[in-house]
Amino acid sequence: MTTSDKIALCSVIVAIISFILTVATILQTRKHNRKSLRPIISINPFDYSNCIKIELINEGVGPAIIKKIVVEKNEHERKSSVYNWMPSLPKGLHYSNYLTRDQNIAMIPGKIIEVICIKLDPQVDNQREFREQMRGVLRQLTVKIEYTDVYNSTFQSYNRKFDLYSRTDNG
Question: CA angle at residue 26 from 25 to 28, to 5 degrees?
Answer without folding.
Answer: 65
